[in-house]
Design goal:
7 strands; Immunoglobulin-like; 2 helices; rod-shaped; alpha+beta; 147 residues; 3-stranded antiparallel beta sheet
Length: 147
């Protein structure tokens, strides 16, 4: 499901590009394909002045079992939630919590500093902080008049 276009016009160009890429990838992540993913964690993505932040719901997953990687401007989050053991004597089992492998990918704009990306996991929420590169300030070039 993509963001309404009229909401997008207030975002900076890089943020719009990031959001469009996010929407395309979110739609494909909900569609297991060649990567054989069983489910996709829900994510929030927002932009701040100096960074992007991605928060993914990954409760019940050992943080050591989550792999966050960056390759050619594509940030990948992958992991797996093990299925709960079910007692053979139980009756009327009802399961809504997904299990199995997951993969989410995000195409990042060129304005991010891939070397400074950090990830942390608190209370089942994976937070990935993606700093932006410092923009070079315009500088005035003096024209030499001497020949």
């Amino acid at each position: 499901m993509s963001l309404n276009h009229h909401v997008m016009w207030g975002l900076p160009r890089d943020a719009r590009a990031f959001r469009h890429a996010f929407d395309r990838l979110a739609e494909s992540a909900d569609n297991p394909g060649a990567d054989a993913v069983a489910w996709s964690p829900r994510v929030d993505v927002h932009e701040e002045a100096e960074r992007f932040v991605i928060r993914a719901d990954v409760p019940g997953i050992d943080p050591a079992a989550i792999d966050v990687s960056m390759d050619k401007n594509v940030l990948s989050i992958r992991g797996e939630r093990a299925a709960d053991a079910v007692d053979a004597s139980s009756h009327g089992v009802h399961k809504e919590r997904p299990h199995g492998a997951f993969l989410r990918r995000f195409t990042l704009p060129d304005s991010v500093d891939a070397e400074r990306i950090t990830a942390s996991n608190r209370h089942g929420v994976l937070e990935i902080v993606i700093p932006k590169k410092a923009e070079s300030a315009p500088r005035r070039i003096v024209v030499d008049t001497a020949h």
